[in-house]
Design brief:
Helix content: over 70%
Order of helices and strands: HHHHH
Largest sheet: none
Radius of gyration: 17 Å
Number of strands: 0
Structural class: mainly alpha
Number of helices: 5
């Protein structure tokens, strides 16, 4: 197996950060434009748990996703200072962890007869992979 150089690792982390930023930015746009996607799911789940208008939750979640993506992308061009990037990235990681907790654990009815375990495993794996990528970016940029 070929040894990965420090430069190759840095390029890989930069690519992961850019792609993750684009993903969060698109998720935010989707939530604001169509009231769909993860913003809608999370807004409904939070509204179901705590009450209140799910539309307000959806907008807050979509804007935070949009800002998260913008910060991840902007930091690639040294527009954002490293310390601010670290705080922002830690906030994104915490928010994404809460998203996983709410959508994949608390928001599920595991005992219902129509629960689709394979679909749940797929989405949970995707959410955990993204959390892992965020943690890798944080460890490299810190």
């Amino acid at each position: 197996m070929a040894k990965t150089t420090k430069r190759q690792r840095s390029l890989l982390i930069t690519a992961l950060q850019g792609l993750t930023g684009v993903l969060f930015f698109i998720m935010g746009l989707e939530g604001l434009a169509d009231n769909q996607g993860i913003s809608m799911e999370l807004g409904r789940a939070v509204s179901g748990m705590f009450g209140g208008d799910s539309d307000i939750y959806m907008v807050i979640i979509a804007v935070s996703e949009l800002l998260s993506g913008a910060i991840l992308i902007a930091s690639l061009f040294a527009i954002i200072k490293t310390k601010i990037m670290q705080y922002a990235l830690n906030t994104v990681i915490v928010l994404w962890g809460i998203t996983i907790l709410v959508l994949d654990i608390l928001g599920q009815s595991f005992s219902s007869g129509g629960f689709d375990w394979m679909l749940w495993l797929e989405y949970t794996a995707i959410h955990l992979i993204l959390l892992g990528v965020l943690l890798i970016i944080r460890s490299d940029r810190g």
